[in-house]
Design a protein that fits this description.
Length: 280
């Protein structure tokens, strides 16, 4: 089996590393978005060769899209328009509803399986690819009943090879949960980093005083704006709702401090401590 990975960055490159180690396929084809990323992917041995979109469609049995979500719909439509009957395609994008809605009536819809491996780092590009990025993480497969059983079985095999735990979800339900669990975390990190940089002009002081808590909280602020801005835009329906709730909680927290309501402040934080039951 030949696999084509379209977009050879952190996610695509890390996928390639683990698939090669597991001997999941006989050949890994890369479809990069720039000459530099293509050369880096080849140099690092992430892919066996770089091919064009047309060559990927001629040669690959499985096509994996790991491109930014703002170009994902156009890429997906292109491959669906030109796919052979035996081929399967999946994407690894962070938003699902808008993607699935865009191709729901496509004649080759059943050859597509919508998936989202919940894994990543704050780094980007092929040089950021690492082994075992996906190990023990969760992958969401959305609307599997709309895909061919053979196609779903292949994508399940893909993520089992990456040592992921597979969950199944409605696409829009996925987007709502992603807004609460993943997307708001990145926004909080971006905003906190921007706040600190605006108020603290002495970079040396930031480095000297930054402890583990600060570093872990703002780590996501190092993530690629080119990747995350389109995600925020595509998922704004659920994300704005989450942000409104977040802002409301922040104002409440501020008022408790401002009015010296120490007992209520402690109770608020104790209620937040309940997250330990979920994140152990």
């Amino acid at each position: 089996m030949k696999v084509a990975i379209v977009g050879i960055g952190l996610i695509g490159g890390s996928t390639a590393i683990d698939l090669r180690a597991a001997k999941f396929c006989t050949e890994i084809l890369g479809v990069g978005r720039s000459q530099q990323s293509n050369e880096t992917a080849l140099k690092l041995g992430l892919v066996d060769k770089i091919v064009t979109k047309e060559e990927a469609l001629q040669q690959a049995d499985l096509i994996i899209l790991t491109v930014p979500v703002n170009i994902l719909i156009d890429e997906l439509k292109y491959y669906l328009d030109n796919m052979q009957s035996h081929q399967v395609i999946t994407d690894m994008g962070s938003t699902k509803g808008i993607i699935i809605d865009a191709i729901q009536n496509h004649p080759n819809r059943k050859q597509y399986v919508a998936s989202h491996p919940m894994a990543g780092t704050e780094n980007s590009g092929p040089a950021a690819a690492i082994p075992h990025l996906f190990k023990d993480k969760v992958c969401i497969i959305c609307d599997k009943e709309k895909s061919d059983e053979r196609a779903v079985a292949l994508i399940e095999q893909l993520y089992q090879t990456l040592n992921m735990r597979i969950k199944y979800m409605d696409a829009h339900q996925h987007d709502m949960h992603a807004a609460y669990i993943s997307h708001i975390s990145h926004i909080s990190s971006f905003v906190l980093a921007a706040t600190v940089l605006e108020k603290e002009k002495d970079e040396e002081a930031i480095l000297e005083m930054a402890g583990g808590g600060f570093e872990s909280t703002v780590r996501l602020a190092k993530s690629s704006p080119d990747m995350w801005a389109p995600i925020f835009q595509q998922n704004k329906l659920y994300l704005l709702e989450v942000m409104d709730t977040y802002i409301e909680k922040m104002y409440h927290f501020r008022n408790l401090i401002n009015k010296n309501k120490n007992e209520e402040l402690k109770q608020f934080m104790q209620s937040a401590n309940e997250i330990r039951k979920i994140l152990k």
